[in-house]
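Sequence in, structure out. Go.
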Amino acid sequence: MNILEKIVARKLVEVEASKRTKSISDLEKEALFSRTSVSLSDALKIAATPKIISEFKRKSPSKGIINGDVLPEIVTADYVAAGAAALSVLTDTDFFGGSFDDFLRARKANPNIPMLRKDFIVDEYQLFEAKSIGADIILLIAACLEPSEVESLSKKAHDLGLEVLLEVHNSEELAQSLCDHIDIVGVNNRNLKTFETSIETSIELSEQIPGSFVKISESGLSDAETILHLYNHGYKGFLIGETFMKTANPGAALADLQNNLSQISNRNPHVV
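Output:
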């Protein structure tokens, strides 16, 4: 059983336990459930420069503890101050050290920025959870869902007013899982079965993603040159977590990256 299979198996058990604790009716009564979502896809469509989706992540299966002593409300507010276009907050506890509490604290500190609930969605119930904690976007990972599940979950997400980020790792997943209810296609440069990363994944898939979908690149991104290179391949957004979180000040790390992007763009206007 690879890492992804272990995560999904645990998630199925976790969701069933959550259903027994809190019903969908209970979730619908949460104050944030009626909140109007903020669109990330609309912002990215009109972006004239690369936009960073900054992630709050305490640990990962591949790296272990990345940064265990940080506060989500502080880090995410610093991200926003440094120019993040959106926030991604992990809510998986067992493998990534995240929680609903992390998400809610980040949401309270940043009420008007698009926020992605970063988790492994395997059940419609989790969409109601996402809505109840103030998420704007949910993640559907093609590698752990059947194409029919992607279609039904994405449709339900839209019914709830949530945007959908479809994450793919290869051309087969892209071809099988792309459907009308997807807002953003994210190419993960990390193979979730081996957790190895390669930027070539984004480059290879860039031409295969229809122009009607907003494209973002995820994982293994750490320098301005790579981001600008991928921007020229049609990627509008870049989801970055570990690169920032492994530093003492994640917000400052984002600010440094933004400065590097600006400096390179100013020296070479043709790159953007």
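Check: The first strand starts at residue 51 and ends at 56. The beta strands are 51-56, 59-60, 64-65, 86-90, 115-118, 137-141, 163-168, 184-188, 214-218, 237-240.
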